Amino acid sequence: MDIQSNLDAVCDILLAANSVCSLTGAGISAESGIPTFRGKDGLWKTYRAEQLATPAAFIQDPRLVWEWYDWRRGIIASKEPNDGHKVLTEWETLFPNFALITQNIDGIHQRAGSKNVIELHGNIWKLRCTAENTITENHEVPLKESPPHCEACGALLRPHVVWFGESLDASILQHSFQLCATCDVVFLIGTSAVVQPAASLPLSAAERGAKIIEINPDPTPLTGIADFSFQAKSGEFLPVLNEELKKRLYK
Q: What is the rounded distance in angstroms from the CA atom of residue 246 to the CA atom of residue 251?
């Protein structure tokens, strides 16, 4: 089928769907100019992400780790949500049951206006006390204190993100699998589909009969299971799909 025929088919699926899930990855943020931080653009001084985003690195040199996160926060703060983010925000009201699950930690979905974002890997704008595990939001750029300390107990604060070697929050992961297991459609948007366990979410949905729709400039390991795969940037493709969908809804 040509692109228009595929668009029409996806619109038909969405109009008949009771629940829709979207799994977003680094690609949608890259379209806003945010580096992946794991590729060549993520090199900071002489360090790579795999060297700094670990519990061991934080124990050894928390100031160094926080300098890196402060640098990242500064980059993210300078960028804006793109049209792909904005469409997903609109879909919260367009679909009665819409879930936005993201692998990203940048908080851009919230800045675009999304209210219910399930963050698999945490959020760079949240800090967690290493002693009490309390979580606070902090949008200072740069941080007033580096490394920051807990106002309540004085212990070191760490980024509230999942580091290499750490497990995802069990309750968040379970909730995400439950959503995917009961949805009718799963969108894969800008995700490489190689990071586990996030990459297993669409597989669990497909096993239960959900339609999988992939939007990514490049093929991924999940392209083969997708019912529709659009090799495009989400910021360009999602607005087109959204307009086609609204034409049908409001005709």
A: 8
